[in-house]
Amino acid sequence: MPRLQSKFCRMCGGSMAIIQPEGDKEWRHVCNSCGYIDYFNPRMVVGCVVEHEGKILLCKRAIEPCRGLWTIPAGFMEIGESSAAGAERETYEEAHARVQVLSQYAHWDIPVIGQAYILFRAKLASPFTFSSGPESLEVALFDPASIPFDQIAFSSISITLRHYLQDMASGQWHLHHGVIDKVPGAAPNDPASFQLKDHFSMPVTLSQQ
Amino acid sequence: MPRLQSKFCRMCGGSMAIIQPEGDKEWRHVCNSCGYIDYFNPRMVVGCVVEHEGKILLCKRAIEPCRGLWTIPAGFMEIGESSAAGAERETYEEAHARVQVLSQYAHWDIPVIGQAYILFRAKLASPFTFSSGPESLEVALFDPASIPFDQIAFSSISITLRHYLQDMASGQWHLHHGVIDKVPGAAPNDPASFQLKDHFSMPVTLSQQ
User: Fold this and answer.
1) Are A10 and B6 a contacting pair at CB < 8 A?
2) A29, A159, B99, B106: which could join B122 in a potential S-S bond, CB 3.0 to 4.6 Å?
3) Residue of A23, A41, A175 with shortest CB distance to B202
4) A79 and B CB contact within 8 Å
């Protein structure tokens, strides 16, 4: 049975219990008074690998978790926007960079934390400038050889950047889909705490470059 | 300002207000007593286009919305599973069919209803049988020419099946990514109420067939 994450009913303020509703295989948070079911679903994190003149844009995080470590611009998708629009929004918020999305690049599920990363290839767009947004200490373009892999914030971002550099070097782009299997409770950036499973790596041809 | 969807605080039972927290560009549900922010995020619907001997598996819905109309097996992704595993689970629940997932096929965002469809290509697996699950009135294999496009439950499924048949006929598979722009409040299956926008159609080569 999952732990109680919702103590009171959103609809009537009654107390909540964790039960298996009839016909449902899952445990749900159900209101003892009005029967409202408070579903918890996985959330999407959307972001961009931004390339400019052969370099990749990274942000040094100004907030926890992983303050001081580097990541690509990414964050939770909002209701009312598309995943690509959300990735562009996060890139502007975190790096003050305007970008053009070229294609989806990866879909990584992380079941243990209930997240899916939907990441895009993008290129820096006019006016080709960037600077730190409120959640970043620093924003910089990195040569592939200079990416600080020992200071990357999240397992999903390490995995993305490693595949991106391989694709970039070979000139054969892929659409990556896979599952990041993490040790529950592990630190977000512990390289020994995760592995990539069920990896589909599909060579793609892009019409819009 | 969005309408109030959460009247009471999940954490303390206090009353909720819709405000813009400092540093946030979005309106949020915030507790007047303890400050808890109740975020609403888009949800993922996961499913499979299941092919067997050149035919496609469809389910006639036994539940609303769109009871009596046809769809592919799909449903909300659960925390703790991957999108592909969720698609397999839904296929078993709705069609009692075991499948092998071949690759991701499409990602469709539907911003107006806060959903993203993550759909997979799959083939029927041993024991190659199927029957109606509790949410289906009927399950059947359709020849491409016999798919009942005037009786398909959801815009996302019509769009998926049309692209799938094109790819199947040409032998060139694609990874599709796009945005389904719906008229707010329109019926789920009104063909005049939606259009596909920002469609990236990436030719793919599959190594795992």
Assistant:
1) yes
2) B99
3) A175
4) yes
